Amino acid sequence: MSNKGKRYLDALKRLSRERLYSPAEAVDLVKSLAKAKFDETIELAVRLGVDPRRAEQIVRGSLTLPAGTGRKVRVAVFAAGEAAAAARTAGADFVGADDLIARVEKEGFLDFDVAIATPDLMSQVGRLGRVLGPRGLMPNPKTGTVTTEVAAAVAEFRSGRVEYRTDRTGNVNLRVGKASFDRTQLLENVRAVLDELQRVKPATAKGKYVRSVTLASTMGPGVPIDTSRIRITDEDLVATA
After folding, report:
1. End of a domain among 159, 175, 209?
2. Are 154 and 90 within 8 A, CB to CB?
């Protein structure tokens, strides 16, 4: 059995299958179970009561995590002229127009985490849909990645802005930090995600909206959160400080 397997099984012994946890309890438990030799990523998985086959029930957007993501985000910007200069000044990793589009289209260049484009270039960037789309990198106005304010967008994504979208089964999966984050930072980020998903609830969604919530580290088991207790208050944050 691998070391990963042993660590995972040891972690499972500390996880009660008979109960659901509050967000604060889940954060504590996940942090305590993150025993890898590297700084594990903490991810939140939320199953929503939506039908992703219906366009009006696709939940998609972006939000800024208060404590950031704990990782360097590589940003590519499709822009020309003054917008390109502004993107470079803001710290974008890759900036270009026809040249960058050709690099992605012909060379399969995808060494970035976020793609931003100015509206005037979207007719050309649209050709990259088959490459960028499956990887969740296609610029879209709903996520703030098609904009004339490229400098602000670059700064936001570098400082902790993340995109989210339901997958085919109605799940939203997002990084909410690192195991090295303190519990208040993680709880603030978890609250930001849960509040955002409630805010964008589709009007046509019927029945229970938040079906399940799970928090986990890279190498650890998922810790189930009680969906009746997902509202995190300022008092909860103070209590964890």
Report:
1. 159
2. yes
Question: How far lies 112's CA from each of 64, 77, 116, 150, in Å?
Answer: 18, 10, 11, 16
53: buried, middle or exposed (CB in 10 Å: 19+, 13-18, 0-12)? exposed
pTM for the model stands at 0.77
| DSSP state letter for 140 | -
Q: Vertex 241, ends 69 and 195: CA angle to 5°?
A: 50
Report the chain (241 residues): mean pLDDT per 10 consecutive residues.
54 67 93 91 97 93 92 94 97 97 95 96 95 92 94 92 92 95 95 96 95 94 92 74 52
In a domain, residue 50? The reply is yes
66 alpha carbon, distance to own chain's centre: 13
Same domain, 80 and 155: yes
Question: Domain range for residue 140?
Answer: 75-159
